[in-house]
Amino acid sequence: MAYVNSHYLVDADWLSSHLAEPNLRIYDCTTHLIHQNDPALPGPYRVQSGLKDYLKEHIPGAAFIDLQEDLSDTNSNLRFTCPDNGQLLQAFATLGVGDESQVVLYSQTTPQWATRIWWLLRIAGFDNARVLDGGLTKWKLEQRPVSNQQTTYTPTQLTTTPRTGLMASKNDVLDAINDSTVCTINALRRVQHAGQDAGEFGNYGRPGHISGSVNVPTAELVDGNTTEFLPAEHIASMFTEISVDKADRILTYCGGGIAASATAMLLVMLGFDNVSIYDASLSEWAPDKTLPMDTLN
Fold first, then answer.
1. How far is 150 from 167, CA to CA, in rounded Å?
2. Is pLDDT above 70 for 185?
3. Sign for the pseudo-dihedral over CA of 156, 153, 124, 65
4. Poorest-confidence range of 32-36, 56-60, 83-87, 218-222?
5. How far is CA 110 from the centre of its chain?
6. Per DSSP, which regions of the chain are E strands?
7. Distance CA 123, CA 84 (A)
8. Average confidence (pLDDT) over 26-41
């Protein structure tokens, strides 16, 4: 099975052939999560900007986006919370994304940092954005040039019309538990879904998964050596196994709406237009003991 919307994912050859285009905007989206399992520390992980990685080397002409500082609601007590529509459009415009821009996003680690920003652009109503398959890892494996020259784009105007319904709330997820028409997907690792990781990947407050959700780990959709997404046929088969094609709505979640964005983007590429991300994910859900969670034996 091929992607219905394959244009959202491009390879290094495509990017190389478009580097001279004046409206091209390339962004390194790298962020690092430092997992922590100490209840005395705030949150299940510490966020570390990928700016140092970017300054060391990046794709020539790329600018840097700091997801937490540039494109998250810094007034929220949860990491990576999506800003309101007005703030989101202004933030992208400040970063140099305009109505006529052609945007390519990549990460130096896993693709989920690029897909998160792709999803935010989708919310903003901007559709001319692509993710570089394999990111900097694949780019370097192919021995393509890198740079340490910092790039910033001139601020511009973004006048797109934001979409609604692409972020799900806690109540949406709660209502979905007993709704057979909704498929809720956990994008975290299988050991986390089972509640058997003993906090290795961060202590969210309670182990396990949201009751009624099924598990398709983002980590199993990516080639561990190249960080490219696995073939479309393989990814489609994993979603077919959980019957997403029978759902009226698909909700994806993880720890903080990051890994879930890769799941969401891939589903859109496969032709599903009924996908939403639970933005706060387990960072909001797990600490609230009134909300149901399950573990596996």
1. 33
2. yes
3. negative
4. 32-36
5. 10
6. 9-10, 24-28, 31-35, 45-49, 63-64, 102-106, 129-132, 167-168, 182-186, 209-210, 214-215, 249-253, 275-278, 293-294
7. 10
8. 82
The token pair that represents 75 in the structure block: 């007034």
The domain boundary, picked from 141, 157, 188, lies at 141
Q: Within a domain: residue 153?
A: no
| Selection from 201, 228, 225, 270 nearest residue 6 by Cα | 270
CATH at 284: 3.40.250.10
Whole-number pLDDT of residue 200: 78
User: What percent of the chain has pLDDT above 70?
Assistant: 96
How far apart CA 185 and CA 176 sit, in angstroms, is 11
* Number of separate domains in the chain: 2
Is there a single domain that holds both residue 237 and residue 117? no
Task: For residues 267-284, give the mean pLDDT.
Answer: 97
Statement to judge: residues 136 and 14 lie in one domain: yes
Do 266 and 176 fall within a single domain?
Answer: yes
Q: Are residues 39 and 134 in the same domain?
A: yes
152 domain residue, yes or no:
no
Q: What's the CA gap between 130 and 104, in Å, rounded?
A: 5
Question: For 61-120, what is each residue's pLDDT tens digit?
Answer: 999 999 999 999 989 988 899 999 999 999 999 999 999 999 999 999 999 999 999 999
Please report whether residue 268 resides in a domain: yes
In a domain, 155, yes or no: no
Say if residue 24 is exposed, middle or buried (CB neighbours under 10 Å; 0-12, 13-18, 19+).
Answer: middle
Residue-level pLDDT at 106: 98
Strand partners, 276: 251
Q: For residues 149-166, give the mean pLDDT.
A: 98
Q: What does DSSP say about strands 9-10 and 129-132: parallel, antiparallel, or unpaired?
A: parallel
